[in-house]
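Notebook, student rotation project (T.W.).
Task set for the rotation: take a protein with a known small-molecule partner, predict the structure of the complex, and write up what can be learned from the model alone. Partner molecule chosen: pyridoxal-5'-phosphate. Sequence and SMILES entered below by T.W., checked by me.
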Amino acid sequence: MNDIAQRIHDIKANLPGNVELVAVSKFHPKEAIMEAYEGGHRVFGESRANELVEKARSLPDDIEWHFIGHLQTNKVSTVVPYVKMIQSVDSERLLIKINNAACDTSRQVDVLLQLHVALEETKFGFTLDEIDALLGTGLLDRLNMVKVRGVMGMASNVDDENRIRQDFMAIKSAFDALKGKYFADDSDFNIISMGMSHDYETAVECGSNMVRIGTTIFGEREY
Ligand SMILES: *Cc1c(COP(=O)(O)O)cnc(C)c1O
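Predicted structure of the complex:
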């Protein structure tokens, strides 16, 4: 097995069976993705629209692409034909744009609502109250081509393990509140995407069932 495939194998071996691994391949070349692919991995995350499209066009069709970065509304129609899921929905406008682009391509797109719980102002996302206000309008009834599958979030970028845990617990409890209020009968609203290379073990302890791991698999990124 090549090194990348080996590292994916090792991570998966230590994850509970219900936790999905998204291999975050942003800034890494197609050859690295193919090494993971040859080891059997199929789910990859990218954070820039042009990079995702360029990779998706030239790599195998059975790769499941997840968009995980901040998505500008003017890039939505370029990425929608290629993605299984957009994890980083952070505005009503973006959600509507994704629905429209999905209509144009006759292709339903899975989305996660991004929650902002971290200390850093620079991170994107909704507060729980904002999502509550958005869903309370009944907007989703009119957006038939997006499927809201759950939430995504990041913990604060700090060393303090307690703060990280607190952030992940806030994301988990926001998921539970939304599930109870708006998605109780929707078994597809079932994804809690949280945890990256340095904090995914804590995230899984706090209820994550989708982790997004780049550096541990592919090495440091060269920006
Ligand atoms: C880059 C990125 C990751 C992966 O981070 P690593 O520390 O390399 O594992 C996960 N989630 C999001 C939203 C990212 O932008």
